[in-house]
Amino acid sequence: MESKASAKTITGTLDDGLESLDLPAIWAQVRRQVRPTTFIESARLDRSLGHDIRLLLVSETFQETGSFKLRAALAAALHSEASHLLTASSGNFGAGLARAAALTGKQCTVVMPHRSAGIKIESVREEGARVDLIDTDQTSRADRVAELTRQIQGVEVVSPYNDPRVIAGNGSLGDEIFEREVPDAIVTPVGGGGLSSGLVTARDRMAPATTVVGAEPALANDAARSLRAGELLSCERESNTLCDGARTLSLGKLNFQILRTGLAEIVEVQETWVADTVRWLFDRANLLVEPTGALALAAVRQRPESFAGQRVACIVSGGNVDPSSYARLLSETASRE
Amino acid sequence: MESKASAKTITGTLDDGLESLDLPAIWAQVRRQVRPTTFIESARLDRSLGHDIRLLLVSETFQETGSFKLRAALAAALHSEASHLLTASSGNFGAGLARAAALTGKQCTVVMPHRSAGIKIESVREEGARVDLIDTDQTSRADRVAELTRQIQGVEVVSPYNDPRVIAGNGSLGDEIFEREVPDAIVTPVGGGGLSSGLVTARDRMAPATTVVGAEPALANDAARSLRAGELLSCERESNTLCDGARTLSLGKLNFQILRTGLAEIVEVQETWVADTVRWLFDRANLLVEPTGALALAAVRQRPESFAGQRVACIVSGGNVDPSSYARLLSETASRE
User: What is this structure's pTM?
Assistant: First the structure.
């Protein structure tokens, strides 16, 4: 699965190392070690959406570790000199980095809140990584990461989103989409901006006519506000949106540079649309998604007229949701056309 | 996607028309109109199973209409002279036949109990079929089908399992598996025997060294008892097993002929293993399955020592489960290694 893209360098004034990376080479490298994404489409889904939208679901729920994050983590691990990788994550990036470290023969430590779900802790440990549990009432993640950085020799801290290798790795998903077809639009969840930036850079090289649209929880709309203001803004505190993968306080700096011109717009998605879309995917696509995984399709369902008549690729970013939350989502939502 | 199998005829003394069908031609025909199956495997699943089993999940949950039944229905529709197809089904075969009729330009009527879930009725209607609701306290399905057969001109009644075209259509799933690889074993749910017979006939032609193992709910073990007795036995009444796709009272006659020599064995699966495996697939594979869809893997998990060291392809037959049942299954089971 070699990338078909040519190896021209990215244009612009990115100051954080993305321009020095050979993106198509990294996409090919990542794709050799991850599961291909799962494409799902059907006339039934299109009928239910209406507005002559032709939907292509691009699901990373069956990616190893259950989300797209392995792509980012793998690119970081492959292009790190360090023998030991360190990150703070209670979620998908931690599992992805643990797996990436295992694949590249490095050690790995993941700082996690001691209240993390048992199955999430277990999935990091199963990959052979060390889990460092902290009481977040006593110690901040940042402080603990700083402390471990001093203690562990040859360690490198990896950011889940604000890193050119992370953007390059996530771009491999764009490479897969454009190798299959060139949709009118790609809709992607926006948290720290690592996935959306990866898709924008792939689009710039492979399919310049495709628009990339962000989907962000209205409850955590720092990226939408940043794009409107033309400067990088933050949320004051972590939102309690259902979409735990999009609770980041702000975009990464590098990501903001890419997204401010690269995204056509950001749809601010209401929580009710997220919950309803988790259920919609259960009812109509037999697809099990975490709330953040439903965010892109929820944006389309909230504002279908913006996508009328288009072929729309919706990224389903992951499927790791704890069973009690999922059961509650199914019970509380009623299916609607 | 042409089949690679040669076109030799099946051996044996099948008296119901299977030997007159060109199976590889039908497999190719079906595969041109259905979604390819979804293969899922991971080191994490293998670790969790233990016994050096290398698992290949073969998931039909993303097949159009949400189960493998479209394959059977399509083969029947493509090889029917009738302009109108009729079946009695509250479940997956009804939706599959409705879709197959739409694809082949035929009319379709599906007799369903009036207490069927709204979303199941809707999914048949969405395909343009007529739903004939009956009060099963007043009228039996068989009586209503007989009545409609007299009323509708040019109608043909299609059995969900006891029909050579159904077996041929389901064999297309075997063709997909063997085109990818030749596993040591295929484990498949057994209800009326249409899917398992299809897999056995594909195995006989393409991969004679692969064993095919059936998985049947212990609560509805007519097929296991039939194989032991060497004659076709029935359950006296419909079982209340969780696996609603395997509540059939007996195997079809034609299927029994194929399965009595074609299956290596039938594992009689306990209900607790079915429920637990629905949850296991949620936790570890992000895969949403109906209870019957979990049956094959549940057989392997109940008796892993029988599959030690093998590459085992487990058929996940479908994903159509109503949300309240699924939420209950998630809440009532605890995950275990």
Answer: 0.91
